[in-house]
Amino acid sequence: MASFFDEIAKNKLKSMLLMLIFIAFFSGIVYLFVYFLGGGIFAFIVGFAIILVYAAFVYFSGDKMTLKMSGAKPADKSQYQSLYSIIDGLASATQVPMPKVYIVNDPNPNAFATGRNRKVSAVAVTTGLLSTMNKRELEGVLAHEMSHIADNDVQFMMIAIIFVGVIGILAAIIRSMFWFGGIGGNRQNNSGVLIIIALVMSIIAPIFAILVNLAISRRREYMADANGARITRDPQGLAGALLKIKNYAAGPNAQPVKAANEVNGSMYFANPFKGKSLMNIFSTHPPIDERIKRLEKMY
Asked: Which residues are catalytic?
């Protein structure tokens, strides 16, 4: 048996190690970009300015874009009194301001949290979740999502998304410079080995960045499960919700979340896509069976 706190500490450490790998890889691709572009300090300033503009745009508008992309609508407080009541109680328990509440008209039982930080956040639930879960299970799912907000996971994952985007942009520019003969002022001094390294990095960097992002997402999901179970003191309620979602996904009428895509998919409570990944490494979420197993061992 594992305590809530042991599980939380273990997943927090793994998340931080993955983020350090992410930062190291990011630093490497930025260095290659500036080195091969040439222009010295001017190229560095221009490149850094582009990164800052992109990062600021994603950070300050990412939550609104996610909600709009997901088709989320503000939940009417008079119609969803019970939902508001549960979230309000969990906000008090986690000591965070009451988040905005949204409804997604979708039969797939799911939910997600988004926002910039603990003070600017939102929780969205699908109509499928509300119709499928009993109060105990719904509270478990919402406690999981509130844990994402309380632990600043919404900010953590937004930063990870920014890293993935920037690495992808810089890698594409390096590839373009290579193929079109535009590796700049340092080209004459570049060894063949460095050029090959740059080309290989520009190809594998975006893929590696996505894989690290997915690994971070899975770690944060385990941690939110543990924190959600700690808040409610009812790991079985959350495990029961996961079991219902698993049974839904295995059923003949199962459908993916209509608005889910590669950008917002990792934010959902459970894998919003239909079917299973060929390998767990490419999954946005940990296996449901493993999540249930861990919850059933908690005390």
From this structure: 145
